Amino acid sequence: MTTGALTVPQAVPAAVEVHDVHKWYGAHRVLDGVQLTVRPGEVTVILGPSGSGKSTLLRVINHLERPEIGYVSVNGELIGVKRSGDRLKELSERAILAQRSRIGFVFQNFNLFPHLTVLDNVAAAPVATRRLAKPAALELARELLGRVGLADKAGAYPRQLSGGQQQRVAIARALALRPGIILFDEPTSALDPELVGEVLSVIKDLATSGTTLVIVTHEIGFAREVADRIVFIDDGRIVEQGPPAQVLDKPQHERTRDFLSKVL
Amino acid sequence: MTEPPGTVFLAAAPPADAPSKVLSAQRVQPLRRPGRWILTAVVLVLSAQIVHGLATNTFYQWDRFGYWFLRPTLLDGLLITLEVTALSAALGLFGGILLALARLSGSPVLRAASWTYTWLFRSVPLIVVLIFLYNFSALYQTLSLGIPFGPAFVTFDESRLATDMTVAVVGLSLNEAAYASEVVRGGILSVDQGQHEAADALGLPKRYQFTRIVFPQALRSITPNYVNQLIGLIKSTSLVFYVSLLDLFGTAQTMGATYPGDIVPLLLVVTVWYLILTSLVSVVQFYVERYYARGATRSLPPTPLQKFRTALRGLRERVRREAAV
């Protein structure tokens, strides 16, 4: 673990610390100096109009996107880079993959492996990263599938399932690595309206279990119910953040008010 | 609608002398297609003519075909064809995978090298490559393994290493790898970007990502294209005759020189054997494709046996229905 100027000096390190992150796609600036701290066990919901950079922010946290300036640390450990003197050096691919295996990520489009059964989808990562032997991984996978209510679908292939079921499998797959933190990138945006509820209820269960969650979503009602903190982001900057009662009911900024008036 | 509403009403009403049977309870009569029947008849007649010609024309000398078909000399040639095909197909696919990975790598040098290789071997005719290799031992007498530009550890005598078989397999593999690399690259590119991201996000090791996640999915589109290649390769092996390796075609050619009267039946023997090989490959292709379709389609395509059973069941049901009417 690194200490010193690059991490926040505190007894318990932040679950996620995003420090002054800038990110460009060509000439387009997606993230413009984002600063965010997530405490362990906290549920953070990121809201914002499309194209505001919220998905990019989430992908920076597990280094699917590399920030041009700034750094991210998870549980006090720098992500994707290491400190060398007063410089940051890129980590090896293997080390980055090892870091990612400690951070769960759930995609908007599920991205299940279509050629593997549901059970193998969930069991793949613990086996591939050599954390569990195959029988133990399969047992864990069965248990997790039971937890998301899909114990009877273990032998099915992902394309034989509904969108909501696929997303629940994707959540079980992320849980199989027992991550301390899980990132959700618009987990219900690709779902038919009647399937949204089953996925949200699984996430709600996780929220009460003490896992740190960072969720990008458009479901304002869900955000109000589950979030400890809401972060509103626009144009690559955090406009305001705070508890749901404050950000959703008494927004301080014009842009937040404007956004909420459109989605509520 | 152009008719006045009254007409429609009248047309829709059942005629006075309609049978007592309700319309909805009747089976719809299928549309008759006389044109289709005429064309079918024409094709059947033409096919019969072709078969009749093949069977009765003495030019084909079917008795001589029977004599040559299982002759040990020709079977030896067939064995050579199979051996050359199998080795070149395996080495070519392996080389193709390496070339495709190089082409998709982050290193510009690897990308350029892979591109140049494919460009070169797709441009040069296979026969030129083979004859070039055949004369290779004149260009380089020895091949050695060692430090580049430094001392050699092992030295091979090229003239002993380069048997006709080696020349044929190396030549065909070099050529095959160039085409296979594009087939494999196309397959890898066909795998959704989300699969790479999901594998990355789970922290799966790179090697596992390729062998267990990306490549098995790529194989679904690689298989039909590579089988196409493979069938081309089976036939290309007939060129090894020019580097004095006696494969199926080469043997037939040699026999034809000795028995000039039997050239046509010998060519027929070769044709039938190539047909058999291609058919076997197609059968294997069906089952390989079916295997890699798991998960890609909601239900697997039926095997010929299953199709046959379904057709039989359908026929039986139809007969029963017709009988009941």
Automatic annotation (TrEMBL), chain A:
Chief location bin: membrane
InterPro entries: AAA+_ATPase, ABC_ATPase_HisP-typ, ABC_transporter-like_ATP-bd, ABC_transporter-like_CS, MetN_ABC_transporter-like, P-loop_NTPase
UniProt membrane topology term: Peripheral membrane protein
Source superkingdom: Bacteria
UniProt-listed PROSITE patterns: ABC_TRANSPORTER_1, ABC_TRANSPORTER_2
EC number: 7.4.2.1
GO molecular function list: ATP binding; ATP hydrolysis activity; ATPase-coupled polar amino acid-transporter activity
Full protein name: ABC-type polar-amino-acid transporter
Species of origin: Streptomyces brasiliensis
TrEMBL record, chain B:
Alphabetical list of InterPro entries matching this protein: AA_ABC_transptr_permease_3TM (IPR010065), ArtM/GltK/GlnP/TcyL/YhdX-like (IPR043429), MetI-like (IPR000515), MetI-like_sf (IPR035906)
Domain ABC transmembrane type-1: 78-285
Main localization, broad class: membrane
Any Gene Ontology CC annotation: ATP-binding cassette (ABC) transporter complex
Matching SUPFAM superfamilies: MetI-like
PROSITE patterns (UniProt xref): ABC_TM1 (PS50928)
Family assignment from sequence similarity: Belongs to the binding-protein-dependent transport system permease family.
Protein name: Amino acid ABC transporter, permease protein
Organism: Streptomyces brasiliensis
Species lineage: Bacteria, Bacillati, Actinomycetota, Actinomycetes, Kitasatosporales
